[in-house]
Amino acid sequence: MCALILFGVLIARRLEYLIGIYAVLLTCAYLLRIPLKELIQRNLVLVLVFVVPLSLPAIFVAIAGGTPLDSWGIFSVHGIQSFLIISTRALCAISLVQLLIATMGVPEILRGLLQLRVPASVVSLFSTMWSYLHVIGREAHSMASSLRARTISPTGIRRAYAILGVQGSVLLQNCVHAAEATHRAMLARGFNGSYGILPKSQPVGARDVVAIVGAIMLGFLGYL
Amino acid sequence: MTDVYTLRDVSFVYPDGRCALDRVTLSIPEGTGLVLLGANGSGKSSLLHILAGLYFPAKGEVLFHGEVLSEERLQRDENFRRRFRTEVGILFQNTDAQLFCPTVREEIAFGPLQIFGAKQALQVTDELLAMFGLEAFADLPPFALSGGEKRKVAFASVLALRPRILLLDEPTANLDAETCDDLFDWLEEFRKRDGGTVISATHDLHSARILGETCAVLSRDHQLKRCGNITEILHDKPFLIEMNLMSRRLQQA
Predict the structure, then answer these.
(1) CB contact, 8 Å: A202 with chain B?
(2) Is B250 in a helix, a strand, or coil?
């Protein structure tokens, strides 16, 4: 369903329709008890950092052409419309991805990526990274606890940076050792370079049919 | 009984130049319960890794069912690699390194998916989840489990390939009494039902008595000092003290 809404987002040509989709997504987030304030903040940060700098030049007549908005002929009506549509479209796509990540388990997302024909090696990489984030986190936590237990309190900024640097390098070494051990464990269990995944049969129910039909209609309404 | 492994003058050196094994010669018959005893750093884990085809000797040779076990052979001979990896399973000392899949179910299925395919992997996984009482944890990430549960998952994932030879590195380390008993029961069943070979590395003399009937002792200078009946060796207290396997203070107490 997410893929279909994304399809709707991509083909929508009218700003008001995209704003409508964003409102639907925020309603979904509210119903799923995701904190709206943080979701909107994160969406806006990503749009402002990555999308606006690239699409902002389109508002100028010199770049986008078309009818000027003002008497000096600086801003283009068509350019401003394009800028708003691109930014809102990105806002919808980003919030959709965040909604997906916030409401689904990582294994399900990885399974979905495999079914979307993302190369198995890439999925394997994501999976291993995700597993090891926790191992690294635990390692870092135990190192910090050990440091506290020995009551080392840095007496200056240079000393603090030195300790931080040593900890970082030791953590890196530990991670390399852990990765080597994991690779050996994979080899011992017949690893041949491909990351297999268990099939999971999920019968399509009435709820899914309604969701798919609704999403298709939503998508085409935006195109019209 | 034929030998599953034959080691001839095997020496192993780490990349940094430290010696881990020095001219070890050993034969392991099929169906044996062999316990590798030795103090910390004597080379037990390295020997297990060599038997699992994960490390390769600097000198000497290892024969598996009479065939040479080498890195080149494992890389080039696909049939041999499949047969070897299916027949030999290793349980690592550090379970965190062994568990790398997003869920317990996928962890157990990892091996069968590589060797057998999806349908059989699904069947084997369900059987093992039930056997180890892990159904409730099937969709949880392995790192979220307790130490004993992780050990169970690791053991189940090793058994998933239906190995005939089990290599266990400190199998009872950090386990509570009940989980230890479960592990001994599974091993006993594995040996009785499947006629499997179990090679365990430990320095715990109490669990050694249960893990096997034969014992090989590695010294601190990485040589094989003695190999024979475990009861005889465990009764030779001066030898155990010399090998740093028994505390002199505890012995006096």
Answers:
(1) no
(2) helix
